[in-house]
Amino acid sequence: MNRAVVVQAVASALVLFVAACSSSSPSGGGGGGGGMVLVCDETAVATVDQCTRTTDLNSSLYSALQSMCTQQGGKVVSACPTAGVIGCCTNANSEGCFYTGGTNPMTQAECSQAGGTWSASP
Q1: Total count of domains within the chain
Q2: What domain range includes position 109?
Q3: How many other C-beta atoms are found inside a 10 Å radius of the C-beta of residue 81?
Q4: What order of strands is seen across the sheet that includes strand 85-91?
Q5: What's the gap between Cα 74 and its chain centre?
Q6: pLDDT tens track for 40-78
C-alpha cells in the first residue's frame, strides 16, 4: 500500500474507534445502537475511488466525518454506487467499497486480515 492509502486507513480506523467508544445514549441525534449513518462517495476523486459507509454515529462525529468527506473532494450520498465496484470490506460499524480506477484498493485478503468481511457489492 502506498503512504497516502495507509494514512487514510489509519485516520478512518481512528474515527471508527472514537465512534465505538462514544456514548451509547441517543443524545445529540445518535450514539451507540442505531445512531446516524454517513455515506461518503469519493469515487470521482483521482486515485481514491472508494466509498465509505459509517454507522452508529452521534451528531458531532457525523458532522466531523461530513466535513472531512467534502474537504477531500467527496460527497455525502444515500448509498455507495454499485457500478465499477471491485469489492467491499465490512467491519463492525463501517463498510469501505473500492472501485476500478483507484490506486491500491484493499484486497479480499487484506480485508480478512483486518477482521472484516468481504463482499462483491455494497
Answers
A1: 1
A2: 3-119
A3: 16
A4: 75-77, 36-41, 50-57, 94-99, 85-91, 117-119
A5: 12
A6: 999 988 788 999 999 999 999 999 999 999 999 999 999
